[in-house]
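Researcher: Please predict.
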Amino acid sequence: MKGWPPESVPQLCTDDFAGHLAHNVNLSAKAILALGAYARLAERLGKKEIAAEFQKLARTFAERWVKAANDGDRFCLAFDRPGTWSQKYNLVWDRILGLGLFPEAVLEKEMAFYRKTQNRYGLPLDVRQPYTKLDWTLWTAALTGARQDFDALLEPVYRFLEETPDRIPMTDWYRTTDGRKVGFQARSVVGGVFIRMLYDPELWRKWAKRDKTILGAWAPLPAPPEVKVVVPTAREHGIPWRYTFERPGDGWFKPGFAASGWKEGPAGFGTKGTPGAVVRTDWRSPDIWLRRKFTLPEGPPGNPQLLIHHDEDIEVYVNGVLAAQASSYTTDYELLPLNPAGKAALQRGENLLAVHCHQTGGGQYIDLGIVEVRGPAIKSAAVPALPADLATALRLPRARPRHRPRRGGPDSQRICEKQY
């Protein structure tokens, strides 16, 4: 965050459905405000030198931001894309947190452009698509603090809620041209529509002081698992694999298959710029098939799992047995458990990993290894008991495990086709 110019590698922002983008002006404003907020925290902790350093850095970057993003009557979507625009909703926190990093003239110029750029049902998120985010629009509406600006951007949103043909719980992602839902509904993020309350200290204090919750009996943090590398990935060193971009014959994943005609190259395989990828061999076709032999001199580990970075769908075989499958994509190396058959297929001595990865569009990458995961039992921490009458009054529920949505499923909100 302390470097300039802004990161040139395509990145995802909160609006991940819009795809990766380098030099994102709104995202860089968020980083600058984070530097300013860090300076404020350091100041409150009495770390004056650190506070001064980061405050100076934030102000310097804010000045550069204004010059680099300026595009006449508005500020760009990306620093290297003149003629574009986007909602700069992240700037709302400059005023709310009292950081004072960006001039009022910046907010006023953006607001004037927004007011003349709206469609019937609201202000698009940016120049690329006619869709918008309802919560971000309300953040943008609060940028200047002026009631007339807020109402000007709120009115089309209200019209959308009245006229949308989709009779569903409120969506926060819709098209500003016809009022149709694009995705998402009944999500907690719509709490962002109350952003303007934070501009009025008396108002938010009035409601905040009504919270009489007494917190206690926090669950202890779980100890992180111990991860031991069994078969290394290519994150640190290139690991040779046999590979082909042409569909192989039947049984390509079995130990006895003749793969001597396949190419050989170091992992990982993919395209540069794919988030989290360490590309050593270029792969740009829709599919890749890979084979790699490895040795387990002491036999299979106790709890073997894959350490894998895949973009997109993968099938992994161990000694000819389907051991794991996953759809969609990751943006870094993640643990993926082997199924029971895959664990049982591991043996002392020589083994074979065979992988098929399928890609539909955008960035692509595949690399994997095997690790042993040892997770110590989580011990309960000693916490003081609440008084009996208070515990009864609060009716504290029993702790329940948090649900983790399956990657690629509707719960994960990946309901649109991936784009980069």
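Model: The longest strand covers residues 287-296.
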